[in-house]
Design brief:
CATH superfamily of the largest domain: Intergrase catalytic core
Number of domains: 2
Oligomer: single chain
Shape: globular
Distance between the termini: 78 Å
CATH class of the largest domain: Mainly Alpha
Number of helices: 13
Strand content: 5-15%
Strand order of the largest sheet: 3-4-5
Radius of gyration: 23 Å
């Protein structure tokens, strides 16, 4: 009699459950994949296992998954009207999982290697121009939470950090006298980012006038830089809510997220003469190609300025 165990909201063969758990531990421990990516991959693979469960009421062996079944699953994803990016992520997760199954010699070949996902649309990232950015940074009031929000916004824009890097900052990651912060990016890679005088001023004000009173609201001390109204570390979701609150006061017709401020950071650096390699290092991009998207934004803006301002355009 086969062992069947509950896993999430459905049942899968015990072998699948064991290998999925070991795979997730492997990519997090050995490959230094971020917790966010691990969670996404877990959900994507679980969804595939649910797909297998619906195909077969009994055991579904590892080797039974072939390229035809992989294509069938791709078709099912496309039929659900998922975005191209979401479909690509699902296939990337499964390609990685089955690569692991090959590595531990449970299967001979990876059925997802030859699966081509829909070509991703090339969309230029949205950003705030400098006047819009200045207006946003002026919005937080001089209150306990307002000073925290001001420091938070100054770092998102002034250092170009990801929201996960922001909420991961601790007090020991700051050196305000030397004007830099130490962040841990994707794959737990460290990088040092300089911060400007306005960010230093906002952080200093928060540390002196707001953080102590927030810290006292919770019995256990924490080293986290940014705290919520209960004195516990701020979450990614909380940062998004804080930003949403201020964006509603701006007269902009754009969707503004924490990553929009990161895009603005990179775009404004390039607009003002920063070289691409330096921006790549500041952003923590592994590949220069990832950073090059911002050169297209700057080029488009220059072309727009030329067309609007030059008499012979």
């Amino acid at each position: 009699m086969s062992q069947i165990q509950e896993f999430g909201a459905f049942y899968v063969n015990d072998g699948w459950q064991t290998q999925l758990t070991q795979y997730l531990e492997y990519i997090q421990g050995t490959k230094n994949v971020s917790p966010h990516t691990v969670n996404n991959y877990r959900r994507d693979i679980e969804q595939f296992l649910e797909f297998l469960r619906r195909l077969s009421a009994g055991d579904f062996m590892f080797k039974a998954v072939d390229v035809f079944l992989a294509r069938r699953y791709l078709a099912s994803l496309v039929s659900r009207d998922y975005s191209r990016k979401t479909v690509a992520r699902h296939i990337a997760a499964l390609r990685s999982f089955f690569r692991y199954l090959c590595r531990v010699q449970l299967i001979d070949s990876n059925p997802f290697v030859g699966i081509r996902t829909p070509k991703l649309e090339r969309r230029l990232p949205q950003f705030l121009d400098m006047p819009e950015m200045e207006d946003l940074l002026k919005l937080p009031p001089p209150t306990v939470l307002g000073r925290r929000d001001s420091a938070l916004l100054e770092l998102l824009y002034g250092a170009g950090v990801r929201v996960s890097e922001l909420v991961g900052l601790s007090l020991r990651n700051l050196d305000l006298s030397e004007q830099y912060i130490l962040v841990f990016g994707k794959g737990s890679k460290e990088r040092i980012i300089p911060i400007g005088r306005m960010a230093v001023k906002a952080i200093s004000s928060y540390l002196q006038e707001s953080r102590p009173s927030l810290q006292r609201k919770h019995a256990e001390a924490t080293d986290a830089l940014f705290l919520n109204h209960n004195g516990t570390p701020l979450s990614d979701r909380s940062v998004r809510r804080i930003l949403d609150k201020y964006v509603t006061s701006l007269a902009v017709h754009k969707r503004v997220t924490p990553h929009t401020l990161r895009h603005s950071f990179a775009t404004h650096l390039l607009d003002n003469g920063a070289d691409l390699r330096s921006v790549q290092e500041l952003l923590g991009h592994v590949s220069l190609k990832t950073t090059q998207v911002y050169t297209h934004i700057s080029s488009e803006r220059l072309l727009s300025v030329y067309r609007n301002a030059h008499p012979r355009a």
